[in-house]
Structure formats: structure tokens, C-alpha cells
Amino acid sequence: MSHPQQPGRRRTLALLGAAPLALAGCGFKLRGARPMPFESIYLGMSPYAELTAAIRRQIRANGDTVITDKAEDAQVRLEVLADRKEKVILALNTQGKVREYQLRHRFIFRLVDVKTGQEALPNNEIFLYRDLAFDDTQLLAKEQEEILLYRDMQNDLVQQLLRRLAAAKMPAAAPKP
Fold first, then answer.
1. What pLDDT sits at residue 8?
2. Which of 42, 49, 121, 145 could form a disulfide with 111 if both were Cys (CB 3.0 to 4.6 A apart)?
3. 174 confidence band (pLDDT: 50, 70, 90)
């Protein structure tokens, strides 16, 4: 027994089946792991910080780059010049109480070739911010939301950092005498 909606269903399935072929034909592909232009890196950050752990995880998952414990053993050194989180008041209500905050995360870094001392990446800044509506009657919920927003900014920061590291131009090796 045939249903009256059968031709429409077949057409829909055919279109859904053709969509991946059309995307593949136009050159679309998912973003994969980006290889780093260096073989080893030293992270000049606190080894116990949550951000350092997130960066380590992503570098290890991204490819063959080795993270060293000593700067001398690495090809490049990531130098963190600033890593600041701020909470700024954006708006007040008529009673003078905070109505909206802006959460900010500023991360300034550079990448240095250990052997030559030349910069592979000069000073770079990643500046992220999120707006947080605030209501003092929901204090616990807003604290949790703030934690989630900072975590989201950290994940975004790590992804931006890895993209910039992958785009680094390594200095040319000095000619041998």
C-alpha cells in the first residue's frame, strides 16, 4: 500500500543525500588540525594554571608538536606578557545599583625562537569580552553565569592562540660558516 506523501518524501531524501555532494563539490571541508610550524614549544606560563592546561591539551590534540619542560629544549618559547581578567560596570539602574557588567580577558604574548632569539610572532594581543546582565536577586545564578562566560572566553582564547601560533613565520636559519 502506497502513501500519498511518498513522492514528496523521496524528493526530500534525494535533496538531503545530494547536499553533502554539493558541499564537497564547492570545496567545503571541515577545519582539521593545523600543523604548527615548529616541532617543540616551551610555554612560559604557570604550569598549574587552568589556561596552561587547556593550551597543552589543544597543542597535543592538534599534531606532533612537543611541549617541553625547559626553555632550552624547545625550538620556540611562548612568552606571556599579560593575562588579565577584569569585570567592568557598564550600566547602573535608577537606584544606583549595577544592572550590567562587562567581563574582559586580555592576553598579550609573543613567540620567540630559542636558538636565535628572534621573534617568530611579535607582541600579539587577544582581547575578549562578554556582557553580563546583573540582577542582585539572582546572585548565585549570576555568579554561575559569570564562571561560564569566563570559561567560554578561555576556550575562545585558546582557539585564537592556536590559530596565531599555526600562522607564525619561523625566522630563517642563520647561514653556516
1. 74
2. 121
3. low
Identify the burial level of 172 via C-beta atoms within 10 angstroms of its C-beta, where 0-12 means exposed, 13-18 middle and 19 or more buried. exposed
CA distances from 103 to 61, 134, 137, 159, 170 (A): 29, 12, 20, 19, 34
The answer, yes or no, to whether residue 128 has pLDDT greater than 90, is: yes
For residue 78, how many C-alpha atoms fall within 13 Å in the half-sphere facing its CB? 29
Sign of the C-alpha dihedral, residues 67, 69, 74, 76?
Answer: positive
Length of the chain: 177
* pLDDT of 176 above 70: no
- Of all residues in the chain, the percent with pLDDT exceeding 90 is 67
Phi, psi dihedral angles at 142 (to 5 degrees): -70, -35
Characterize 101-139 residue by residue with b for buried, 16 or more Cβ atoms within 10 angstroms of its Cβ, and e for exposed: bebbbebebbbbbbeeeebbbeebebebebebebeeeee
Q: Give the residue among 107, 108, 91 at the shortest CA–CA distance from 99.
A: 91
